[in-house]
Amino acid sequence: MKVDKEEDLSKKCKVVEHIRHLLKDDDEARSFPCRKGMKWRRKLELWLSSIFLLLTITEAKPVIGSSEAVPFLISLLRDETDPQCKLDALHTLFNLSSHPSNISPLLSAGIINGLLSLVTDSSDHTWTEKSVAVFINLASNKSARDEMISAPGLTSGLAMILDIGEPVDQEHAAACVLILCNGSDKCSQMVLQEGIIPSLVSVSVNGTMRGKQKTQKLLMLFREQRQRDPSPVRTCQDPKRSDVDDVDSDSKPLSKSISTRKVGRAWSFWWKNKSFSVY
């Protein structure tokens, strides 16, 4: 029975791969630079639907993850593809990234840069939540975490989401930053340099329940790191102005800044507020 199931899965995967080859070699696709040909789009929708159905079978995930489907899916993130097809590709990559054995081929195919182009696109937030969700799946792997931390623009992109994103996007961004910074002082310093503390304080008060939990854990993590090595957020203030500074920090609204002085004030604000709890 097990052999029959494996043979059936193999046949289904071959059919999906055949559809991909039709997409790749389609004359109409080549005649439309932005891949907006109706015939090509219908084939693409069929292919994505077939993969989506196959991914409901756990055994199919590593098979598809090791195929040429992965680079093709990632290319859809970069191309001017129909928005719905791009979103379907993103959902498919999310499902693939949930299987540990697929992390390596996804990294090799350039998924981080593909996702980064969506996360940093301030003109359209359609992709933000699912893109960050894929990043969270990838971050379960150490090699992926290291590559993500080194990726130019990723930490600033996550900081931007925490600052101006929708509550659910902020929740995912906080979860991703927490995974990346936990055990990596380098990532913590990169994030702190983005002036992330005021945004974290804001989300810990006004965000979703899970967003509050994640940001509070992040603030605790940064506090512990600060106690071990206070130099990154050390402030040099005139003792004679300490009272004035305390008044200023209470009277002025928090705003995002990479200034170490403002970061210090944000820390003071958070730790004085006894309503926060860390889970």
Automatic annotation (TrEMBL):
Residues 61-227 form the U-box domain. Gene3D superfamilies: Leucine-rich Repeat Variant (1.25.10.10). It holds the Pfam family ARM_PUB. Residues 226-255 are annotated as: Disordered. Keywords: Ubl conjugation pathway. SUPFAM superfamilies: ARM repeat. Residues 226-253 have a biased composition (Basic and acidic residues). PANTHER family: U BOX DOMAIN-CONTAINING, U-BOX DOMAIN-CONTAINING PROTEIN 7. This is ARM repeat superfamily protein. It comes from Actinidia rufa. The lineage of its organism: Eukaryota, Viridiplantae, Streptophyta, Embryophyta, Tracheophyta.
